[in-house]
Design goal:
- It is built from no helices and ten strands.
- It is mainly beta.
- It starts with a strand and ends with a strand.
Length: 101
């Protein structure tokens, strides 16, 4: 849970991990049937991706505070997300990538 937490339907990456310590994880199973992967380097989240196993809506605490976030699928920008947390629809079997803009 220091790396990835799914609590009350909201995903959080590196919620209590020391920001000065680099870390990465691959396919941690989270609430809502998501397999989440992410990397933290030099105090900043580099990327977040999630494989949706069931096609449920995904709510994420913005890992790039005060920044807009690009939601990508297969290298294509689907939409720009804003706010402290955001929600987007997913399809079962699809992988989604988040990047700070």
């Amino acid at each position: 849970e220091m790396l990835c937490m799914g609590h009350k339907g909201v995903l959080r990456v590196f919620p209590v991990w020391p920001k000065q310590q680099d870390a990465a994880f691959t396919q941690i199973r989270c609430w809502g049937a998501f397999l989440v992967s992410a990397e933290l380097k030099r105090g900043k989240v580099k990327h977040v991706s999630m494989l949706s196993e069931r096609g449920r809506d995904c709510t994420v605490v913005n890992p790039w505070p005060d920044q807009q976030v690009g939601l990508y699928q297969q290298g294509r920008l689907l939409k720009t997300l804003k706010g402290d947390r955001f929600r987007f629809e997913t399809m079962a079997g699809q992988t989604y990538h988040l990047k700070g803009l």
